[in-house]
Amino acid sequence: MALLSPIVVLPLLGFVLNGLIALSGRRDPVALRAVTLIGCVLPLLAFGFAVRALWALEAHPEAALIEPLFTWAVIGEHHFAIDLYLDRLSALMALIVTGIGSLIHLYSSGYMKGDAGYARYFAYLNLFLFFMLLLVLGHSLLVVFVGWEGVGLVSYLLIGFWFKDTLNAKAGKKAFIVNRIGDAGFLLGIFALFSLVGSLQLDIIQQHFLHEDIPVITATVIGLLLFIGAMGKSAQLPLHVWLADAMAGPTPVSALIHAATMVTAGVYLVARLSGVYEAAPLALAIIASIGVATALFAATVALVQTDIKKVLAYSTVSQLGFMFIALGVGAYGVAIFHLFTHAFFKACLFLAAGSVIHALQGEQDIRKMGGLARALPLTFIAFAIATAAIAGLPPLAGFFSKDEILWFALSSSQGGHGVLWGLAALSAFLTAFYMFRLLWLVFLGQPRTEPALRAQLHEAPWNMNIPVLLLAAGSLVAGFWAVPGYLHTLLPAPAIMPALAGWHGGVAGLAIALALAGLGLAVWRYGGSRYQPAPAGAPMAFGLQNLLTNAYYVDALYQRTLRTPLQFIAQHLLWRWSDQRLLDGSLHLAAATARLTARLLAYLHNGQVQWYLWLALLGLVLAVLLS
Amino acid sequence: MDKLNLLLGLSLALFSIGLLGLMIRRNLLIMLMFMELMLNAVLLSLVVFSYQLAAVSGGVLVFLLFVVATAEIALAIPIVVLLVRQKRSLDPGLYADLKG
Fold first, then answer.
1. Between 20 and 30 A from A514 (CA), which of A23, A42, A349, B11?
2. A583 lies in which domain range?
3. Domain count for chain A
4. Domains (range + CATH), chain B
């Protein structure tokens, strides 16, 4: 009995069925109900199969389940097989993807209700699950790469879901193009691994790196190439620019793809190939540096954002930075732990934000919210729980994972350092501050909503509230499952520096103090009714705020240094000169020559009968003379 | 033998006069007449050659070609008449816009 293939195939089936309904263009209630049913039930079934597969795996946890499907290609001695592979790491990922995915599908049936592209939306969402599960369950890097590219494609399709607005379409293109840069690195890494190992099977690569003597430089180059792919997908500096713009998509998409699952694929990839990085300390150091830089960078930018989804987007970038800090100090299991808890509270935050946006009929500016707790009590409770979880207040989910990350950033013998810890702790403090700022500005304080809108405020329907509340419950308890311990056989924790042994409690206490300080600062600054936001368009109070609002002008920098020269080359060199002058010009020249010849020859044909006779005589004379 | 060469020379002279006239005269009816002259020159050479080769069929062919020439002129004259109705002129240069 096939254990793994149904997990992957069911969402694909959903994509095909919903895609057919979308193509048929039917929008009557029967078709819509069928779309909802197919779209929500098939992911749930996939979740059921994932649970069953986990059950089968736990019977013999030391041996991974491998399910061969078919051989893709045979080139010489190399067989490229499509196999599915399940060990504890991929099982955990599959559960996150199908579980949270199912909840978000259910939520979408409320959020997207009445949208003209309802069937198309569910088709895309199911397709996303298919590719994501392929990425997670692939046995060969080739299959992983197919999934990797597939989720990128669906991400593009869903960011630009409302493509009639040019801005949305542009945001989709931006995400796709920035991801291509990372994918190029990933692909080069795959080539390098294949030429080194001779196989793309993940477990063979892992064993090869653990048991063979690989030169450090080789491992470093491969590790960095793969990490470039992870940087693109997981929005790390300097390839982070697409994630904030990706918020142009529907909010459940932001929750599923751009918070809980797809953007964590980079973290999964690095953890999956931890053997490569174990042989490359320099690559690990670079990962940790980029991780902490991203965490701090995004946390500061999130301080001043005024769009509710932008705050959450930068917060996602920042949390992904935390995961890469953990990866960079060798604590792969801890990174996956944070991935796991983050999936709960960030999905919950996004869905709750979606309910707010839904209730306010599309308003996303937090300066025009405030005091929504009374109208949306359930959403408020869920949002508050998830906020406390991401801020790292015990005993919520985020506390456990973030505490472990901070602890290993300080104490790991594979690159733990006081500076790394200090910057990470500062980011954690800022996280607490901006998240509680968001909570206060949206749900508490004076209502700043439009008075006309205030009367119509209503709690979201049940199919939106249930996922939000379930995810909030997950944010409450997910931290109690010690994921690093569960994954210990696959991803052993790094050794602790002996001098720091026994200090874990103190460091954790400091982390809690920082989170509470962030909470306190946010309450002091934004609490009560004193806060009055500056009206939109007002000049910024000070330069730093300007800098942060524009995300350190990274976009403008790329605009100046990359886009302008590229556009110049494209427009003037390639289009105006090469295409229009050289190619078109040569064709125009040929055409003009033909036309000129024709005009000259046309003079012979002037309609004068006697002129023709002279020509005939000339021809006759020539024929006689030349014969 | 000399007589035949003389006749062939006459045929050549008639043909040349016909061609020259056709090329330099600017009157459609005159041009048609010169064309007939050329045709008759060719027929004369045909008669000469058939006599030379003692082929009776040549003589028969000449009579058939007379019929063809008659039919041709019977078509050409009405065309000229129709043209003249258009522009009241026999100058072929005025009808240059008939070119395809």
1. A349
2. 553-626
3. 4
4. 2-90 (1.10.287.3510)
Q: Which H or E run includes B92? A: none
- Of A607, A613, A614, which has the smallest distance from its Cβ to B99's Cβ? A607
Give which of A610, A611, A618 to mutate to test B binding, by max B Cβ within 10 Å: A610
Q: Which chain B residues in 35-74 lie under 8 Å from chain A, judged by CB atoms?
A: none
The three state secondary structure string of A332-383 is: HHHHHHHHHHHHHHHHHHHHHHHHHHHHCCCCCEHHHCCCCCCCCHHHHHHH
Determine, for residues A607 and B98 on separate chains, whether the beta-carbon distance falls below 8 Å. Answer: yes
For residues A350 and A465, membership in a common domain is answered with yes
Q: What is the CA radius of gyration of chain A?
A: 30
User: Nearest CA to A121 among A109, A135, A103, A134?
Assistant: A109
Judgement on whether residues A592 and A508 belong to the same structural domain of the protein: no
Give the nearest chain A residue to B25 (CA atoms).
A610
The answer to ipTM > 0.85 is no
Mark yes or no for CB contact B19/A605 under 8 Å: no
CB contact under 8 A, B98 and A605: no
Q: Do A269 and A295 share a domain, yes or no?
A: no
For A50-62, how does the pLDDT look when each residue is reduced to its tens digit (9 = 90+)? Answer: 999 999 888 887 7
Q: Do B19 and A614 touch (CB under 8 A)?
A: no
* Closest to A109 (Cα-Cα) out of A35, A43, A163, A160: A35
B95 and A CB contact within 8 Å = yes
Residue A199's CB is within 10 A of a number of other CB atoms, namely: 17
**Within an 8 Å CB–CB cutoff, is residue B97 touching chain A?**
yes
Q: What is the mean pLDDT of each run of 10 residues along chain A (627 residues)?
A: 85 92 86 89 92 89 84 86 89 92 91 86 92 92 92 91 88 90 92 89 88 87 93 89 88 88 91 89 92 92 88 92 92 91 92 89 82 86 92 86 89 85 92 90 82 79 89 89 84 82 84 89 77 57 74 84 89 88 93 94 84 89 92
Q: Is residue A545 part of a domain?
A: no
A166 touches chain B (CB under 8 A): no
